Amino acid sequence: MDFIIQGLVQAFKLILKGDKEVYSIALLTLKVSGTATLISLVLGVPLGLYFAVSQFRGREFLVGAVNAGMGLPPTVVGLWVALFLWRRGPLGFLGLMYTPTAMVIAQSIIALPLVAGLTMSAVQQLSPKLRLQILALGASPLQFWWLILREVRMGVLAAVMAGFGRVIAEVGASMAVGGNVRWYSRVLTTSIVLEVNKGNFALALALSFILLLISYSISYFLTVLQQRRRQT
Question: Which residue of 18, 110, 126, 178 is 20 to 30 Å from 148, comparing CA positions?
Answer without folding.
Answer: 110
